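tool=predict chain=A
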Amino acid sequence: MIERSGKATHQETRAHNSRLVLGTIYDRGPISRAALARSTGLTRTTVSDVVSDLIRDGLTREVGRGPSTGGKAPILLAFADDARHLVGLDLGESVFRGAIVDLRGEICSAIEVAVDDRDGNQALERVFSLVDQLLARADRPILGIGIGTAGLIDTTIGTVLEAVNLDWHGLPLGALLQARTGLPVYVTNDSRATALAEHVFGGQRASNLVVVKVGEGIGAGLILGGRLFQGDGFGAGEIGHTTVRPDGDACRCGRLGCLETVASTRAILGQLASHGISRLPDAVAALEAGDPLVRDVVVAAGRQLGLAVAWLIGVLNVERIVLVGSAAEFGEPWLSAVRETMWASALGLLADGTTLEIGRPHADGVVLGATALLMTRELGLNLTGLPDAGLEGAVAGESESDDLEISA
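tool=predict ok
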C-alpha cells in the first residue's frame, strides 16, 4: 500500500485507487458507487472516475438498481467475470494439465498431456504445444499465462531454478513463453499456487493460511498478511526436502531421509508395492476395506507429516492449515494421524488454536492458483480480505446514503 506521505505520484495514486475499487467490486459486488466510497474511504468523485475507467475497459458493468432507502434507487456495479480469459498450467509429475479460466476461477476448457519421460527439452516442447492448443480455443481477450510447477522458482523473472522431476535447471520458462506468445507470463511453485487458489477462490479469506500439498512430493504454500510469502530465496515452504531421518532412504534431491521419503504418496505406495499394491486407488480401497497393513503405513506417514505441521505452527502460528494433494484421498485415518501428532508435538496453546482440515478436492487447484497469481498481478486486485483504506479519506460532511449516487 502507498503510504500517505504526499510523495505518491498522480499515476501511482490513480493505480492504487483503481486496484482498491476493482478489488472491492470483485469481493462485494453488486455494489453501488456510494457503498464503494464508504467501503474504500475514497471520495465519491474519485470512485466515479475510477468506475468510469473500469466500465470502459470492460472489467465492470452496471447490473440494474438496488433497493431504495427513500430516494432514487442506486445503480449497482458488478465485476465482469467473462471480460478476460486466462491460461493456466499445472506441470505435474505425470500429466501436464492446462485450462482456459475466467476471472472468477471457472474452467472454460481444459487439456491434458501425458508426460512419460524426464527429458527436460521434451517436457518444454510439451508445454509449448499445450499453450498453443489452449490459445487456439480462447474466445475472449487473453490476460496472460499462469504456470504452477514443482521445484524452486524465481517468480520475479519466471525462471525455474531447479525442478528435479522435469530435469529443468535455470530454465527461463516465463521469458521463453512470453517471447513465443507476446503475453504476460507468471510462474510459481505448485504448492504456492494451490495456496493461492484456496485463498482467492476458496471462499471467505483470512489474512493467514498455510496449504500443505502432499502428493508425489511435499510442499507448503504460505499466505501471510494476505500475501503470498516466498522467502528471500523463493524457497519458503520447501518442507519436503528437510531431513527427518539422516540414515533414511535416498531422496530425488540427492540427500537422505527427506520428509518426502517417508510421508509422500510416493513413499506410501513404495512401502505397499511389495504387498501387491502400487496404485493409489487400490491403496485407498484397501484402507477403506480395513486392511491393517495399509492402515499402519498410512498412519505412519501421517504421523511424520504431523511433525512437519507442528514445525509450521511453532514458526508461523497460523491458525488455519489445509492439507491437499493425492495423499488427502486417504481421508480421516490419515488426517487423524497428522492431527494427533501435531497436537502432541507443538506447543499446546498454539496447537489448540489451529484448525487442520483436508481441502476440497479439486483437480485444477494448481491451475486456478497460477491464474490467481496472474490475475492479481495484471489487474492489481488487492485480494487480502477486507480492503485497505484508500489514499483519500472520505470528504467530511458527505452523505452516507446510496440515494446520492454519482453517475459514470
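DSSP finds 13 helices and 16 strands in the chain. Residues 85-195+364-379 form a domain with the Nucleotidyltransferase; domain 5 fold (CATH 3.30.420.40).
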